[in-house]
Amino acid sequence: MSKIIAVAELRDNGLRNVSFETISLAKQWDDESEVVAVVLGTADSKHGQAMIHAGADRAILVSNEQLHTPTAENFTQALMQVINEEQPTGIVFGHTSIGKDVAPRIAGRLNAALLSDVVSIEGQKQDAVFTRPIYAGKAFEKTQGKTETVLVTVRPNNIEVLQTDSSRQGDITVKEVELVDLKTVVKEVVRKVSSGIDLSEAKVIVSGGRGIKSADTFEMLRELAELLGGTVGASRGACDAGYCDYALQIGQTGKVVTPDLYIACGISGAIQHVAGMSNSKIIVAINKDPEANIFSIADYGIVGDLFEVIPLLIEELKQSLK
Ligand code: FAD
């Protein structure tokens, strides 16, 4: 029986949502293959169980102390040991920092096709056609992998996850791996303070551009985001001006986001920014320039001064939440 490996990702000892999308894509790719979830860096069976409830047929928990702090090097080594044993025809990763780093290394070692940043799939098995954005989201490419094993990275928030079925059963095995000759070892990770919501998985994002004019205004955006149950993002203009951290940058050289609601405040809508947010379900733009490019992709546009509009929105929301 052929197999597809779905690579799960952990954060704060919980599975990231994209893990469930890897399973969903694997099932759509070949519903007769065995879908094997691989969770690296844990020996906690609850993670394997959750992957099986989400549609995997079995789960492998790959354990080694070094894997608690993922690096491309230790993940690649550990995964290669699983791949050599399982001989999958397909491997699905999240299109996340670690997925983007590890998948090409594995593809290189296997001399296999890698289709990255996939947003949808049509057809099945060898006939499966994967769609991925190219030219910073200006066009979409339909592509097929023609090697014995094909690797795919899936853009978060694009593949509908399967309904959880807690009655699903499957084997969960722990695989101890040996990692040898690691060239880098992470000693400590010092986290930046954040709202706790991962930008790439956020449902609501309030984003600030150069038009916000100061770091203080960012706190106003944060208040609006929190009222909406979301988080804040930024254009490179805002990051370059020092209004916020580069970790918040959305766009071609920043994060790619697909929230249900994206509110762009004082952002002109440069192509490099749009590349990171144009797949948002609803886009609201607040800009004082009626000719700003952001209005050409917005579902709702507010032509006005953000320093007047945002306090009004905050006030209105507070009233309605009372
Ligand atoms: P601006 O273009 O300066 O726009 C500010 C906007 O604020 C204007 O439209 C203005 O009308 C409005 N405004 C001003 N005051 C107010 C007010 N009081 N109320 C309402 N509106 C107001 N950019 C990204 O964002 N992400 C990327 O990943 C990225 N990658 C890049 C990669 C490369 C190789 C290059 C060359 C560029 C990249 N850029 C990226 C930069 C990009 O080209 C733009 O320069 C940047 O997005 C502009 O940011 P901005 O819209 O905040 O600023």
Automatic annotation (TrEMBL):
Q: Source organism's superkingdom?
A: Bacteria
Q: Which residues form the Electron transfer flavoprotein alpha/beta-subunit N-terminal domain?
A: 4-186
Parts forming coiled coils = none
InterPro entries named in the record: DHS-like_NAD/FAD-binding_dom (IPR029035), ETF_a/b_N (IPR014730), ETF_a/FixB (IPR001308), ETF_alpha_N (IPR033947), ETF_asu_C (IPR014731), ETF_asu_C_CS (IPR018206), Rossmann-like_a/b/a_fold (IPR014729)
Pfam annotation, one family: ETF_alpha
SMART domains, from UniProt?
ETF (SM00893)
> Which key words tag this protein in UniProt?
Electron transport, FAD, Flavoprotein, Transport
Gene3D superfamilies from the UniProt entry: HUPs, TPP-binding domain
Q: Name one GO biological process term.
A: fatty acid beta-oxidation using acyl-CoA dehydrogenase
Note describing how the cofactor binds: Binds 1 FAD per dimer.
Please verify whether the record's keywords include Nucleus.
Answer: no
- Residues annotated as binding FAD are 210, 235-236, 249-253, 266-273, 287
Cofactors named for this entry: FAD
One molecular function GO term is: electron transfer activity
Q: Which family does it belong to?
A: Belongs to the ETF alpha-subunit/FixB family.
Q: What is this protein called?
A: Electron transfer flavoprotein large subunit
According to its UniProt entry, this protein's organism is Solibacillus isronensis B3W22
Q: Its encoding gene is what?
A: etfA_2
